[in-house]
Specification:
By secondary structure, this protein is mainly α. 74% of the residues lie in helices and 0% in strands. The two termini are 29 Å apart.
Length: 294
């Protein structure tokens, strides 16, 4: 049986479409403007900012990549992001699986600890983290004559993974809890152990949720600035892309080379846009299916 739409329903639908169109314009126009500005020559910035570029001046990207060392910064960010995601998944997936699928002594306390971590803003504790790692480096330098905690990309990746752990475990635990136990029990009957059932049965079923947390954390790690700036303050060759981008913007503004500055912005945005387009379908599934009861 179908219900006929009233004029109020149509008006509400039109209102929703108008709001969505306005939101799309607010998001798309600045992004498109940055892409167009990245291929303009310097002289074109002193006229109407909304004019199209006379030609595609790709030299801005070459200068941003080589002269401004954006290639080195991007490589550092890619390395740190990949290491952070690998460490995070290795720790968070088994932790979320155990907390959501098993009942054991201390499990509720661990759940409370992870929940409490959701309310801690890492920007508020970055200074204590820096002071703690500085003291550890002083101790290492005193006994071994070298430092390993500050200005180290691997240690930065560990800090990134640790700060993202509460949210990741919370999201994965909520999804794992919705999966039925029948599949695991069938795997146990076939002779699989707990680890095999987790890796071969549960993780493939949780693929949409896993892709969701990978994308969220990738965006967080790739665009993170405060922790990287604090923990990598003395290293010029190991700065990540957001820190390098800020240095580029400050330098190019003083030189009035705006094309190179916007080319650097495009280099930062492009990997996230490509990743989102590749996993957009899985991301939508992961955000909706976790709320369904199995």
């Amino acid at each position: 049986m179908t219900t006929k739409k009233t004029s109020g329903d149509r008006l509400y639908q039109v209102f929703i479409y108008v709001v969505l169109a306005m939101l799309a314009i607010v998001i798309i126009v600045p992004v498109a403007w940055v892409f167009l500005a990245s291929v303009k020559q310097n002289s074109e910035f002193y006229g109407n900012p909304w004019t199209l570029p006379a030609s595609f001046y790709w030299q801005n990207f070459v200068d941003a990549w080589n002269a401004a060392s954006m290639g080195s910064y991007m490589l550092n960010s890619a390395l740190v992001t990949a290491l952070s995601l690998a460490i995070l998944l290795v720790v968070a997936l088994p932790a979320a699986y155990c907390l959501s699928r098993f009942r054991f002594r201390g499990g509720r306390f661990l759940n409370v600890c992870f929940m409490a971590g959701l309310f801690i803003n890492v920007n508020y504790i970055v200074v204590p983290i820096f002071l703690m790692m500085r003291d550890w480096d002083s101790w290492m330098n005193y006994f071994f004559g070298k430092t390993i905690f500050l200005n180290n990309l691997f240690m930065l990746a560990i800090v990134y993974a640790a700060t993202a752990l509460p949210f990741t475990v919370y999201l994965l635990s909520g999804y794992f809890a919705t999966l039925p136990h029948d599949f695991e029990e069938a795997a146990y009957i076939d002779g699989a152990g707990y680890g095999q059932a987790m890796i071969r049965v549960i993780f493939p079923m949780a693929q949409p949720s896993i892709i969701t947390i990978i994308l969220f954390n990738f965006l967080s790690f790739w665009n993170e600035y405060i922790i990287s700036m604090t923990l990598m303050s003395s290293s010029t060759g190991q700065k990540t892309l957001p820190v390098g981008l800020l240095n580029l913007m400050q330098g190019q503004q003083s030189k009035a080379e705006f094309g190179i500055m916007y080319a650097g912005l495009v280099l930062v945005m492009l990997p996230t846009l490509i990743l989102y387009m590749c996993v957009q379908k899985k991301l939508t599934q992961g955000m909706t299916v976790g709320g369904l009861k199995g």
